[in-house]
Amino acid sequence: MTTPVGDWTRAIDRHDPVALDVTVGRLVVVAAHPDDETLAAAGYLRAVHAAGGRVEVVVATDGEAAFPDAGPAERAALGRARRAELDAALRELGLEPAVTWLGLPDSALADHEPELVEALRPLLLDADACLAPWTGDPHPDHAAAGRAAERAAPAGVHRVAYPIWARPRRRPDDPALPWDRALVHRLDADARAAKAAALAAFATQLAPAPDGGPPILPPDVLAHFAGDELFFAVPRTDGAPVSRFAELYAADPDPWGTRSRWYEERKRAVVAACLPRRRYAHAAEPGCGTGELTRMLAGRAGTLTASDFTPAAVAATRAANPGLDVREAALPSAAALPDGIDLAVLSEVLYYLAPADVAATADRLARALVPGGDLVLVHWRGRAPEAPQAAAEVHRRFRADPRFDPLVEHVDEDFLLDVLRRR
């Protein structure tokens, strides 16, 4: 039985997901079958292309097993037809076909998952973002394609999942759905018309089955894909690798624009204004980066211990702050958070840690900060591709920690800032 479309429409409105950023760069879209990408993300692909991004589609199978009773010749013909249909659908969206066909067996993708991972690795190397099926989707090929894409994508690639059969076959209140990571792409009238034209290209999926049975995509299923498109952010499950930060600093000595961007300048000013005390005896700043915030903190503390786990960042902070104690250390170590500090400032660092390391850092802060000492957390509200958690998750975890009392909570469109006091 198909879930009513209205149930999903109301759920999306109720959860009000943030908009999925339109990638201006190289977007690689992984699909298990030709039409998955069009059903779930045609409007988004069209928007990326219109914004100047490059859209590349990788299709794991030809979808030749859509009708299980078909013989070998019929399956081969269906596979050829579905390839042609995808090319036509992409043209309806205004995209020139840029499709890589992997030709793996349809309806058996899980058995070929290692092969799929190896095929995807080189295709995702220089991508800015990757769309792939949601690993919780009820079709086993979709789930396998999603798992393979997650394993193949390098740390610097934004990973986003799209549900397909989950929409017509599951209810939106299913607890397996990660609504806390939901994203949406809204479709205007032109986008809806273009998507409808693209879906109409998949004639083999819209016509009755060869044995006279219902089509693969009957009208009640298609209705689920006519409206706004739903996605889920896919965070890393482990901490950001040190090698990723080494790559960033090798490409640019100031990879986040800390010396030039207004966001960074404004954030430092807000941090300075939110410090409850004029002076601190001993402050610590793990994840000091290029040392721009370090300079302000050094003027507010008798002693400042700055640290970073990336050698290039340590060198940059030392150059920007001659004579300062700058250490190569990673959270949650005591070298980064020494005992007896009365201020700790963690800026743009916690969401890069694995959840277990965030918990260990909270324990270390509770030991290192003297009673009455202040903890400042400040993080960008977006989701970095290397980060296993978002700012909201990290800040919520610390605000709920009974060892700290909240003093300041600042929320704006760019970043979150919390000041907590050690009990």
Can you describe this structure?
Keywords: Zinc. It comes from Pseudonocardia ailaonensis. Residues 285-373 form the Methyltransferase domain. This is Methyltransferase domain-containing protein. InterPro entries: GlcNAc_PI_deacetylase-related, LmbE-like_dom_sf, Methyltransf_25, SAM-dependent_MTases_sf. It is a single chain. This protein has 423 residues and is of the alpha/beta class. The chain folds into two domains: 5-233, LmbE-like (Rossmann fold, 3-Layer(aba) Sandwich); 242-422, 3-Layer(aba) Sandwich (Rossmann fold). The chain contains 15 helices and 15 strands. An eight-stranded mixed sheet has the order 1-7-8-6-5-2-3-4, with helices on both faces. A seven-stranded mixed sheet has the order 11-10-9-12-13-15-14, with helices on both faces. Helix 3 runs antiparallel to helix 7 (189-200). The longest helix has 21 residues, at 72-92. The termini are far apart. The model has no long low-confidence stretch (mean pLDDT 96).
Helix content: 25-40%
CATH homologous superfamily assignment of the largest domain: LmbE-like
Q: Counting H and I runs of at least 4 residues, what is the number of helices?
A: 15
- Counting helices, strands and paired strands, the structural category is alpha/beta
Q: Architecture of the largest domain in CATH? A: 3-Layer(aba) Sandwich
Low-confidence stretches: none
CATH fold category name of the largest domain: Rossmann fold
Number of domains: 2
**Order of neighbouring strands in the sheet with most strands:** 1-7-8-6-5-2-3-4
How many β-strands, per DSSP?
Answer: 15
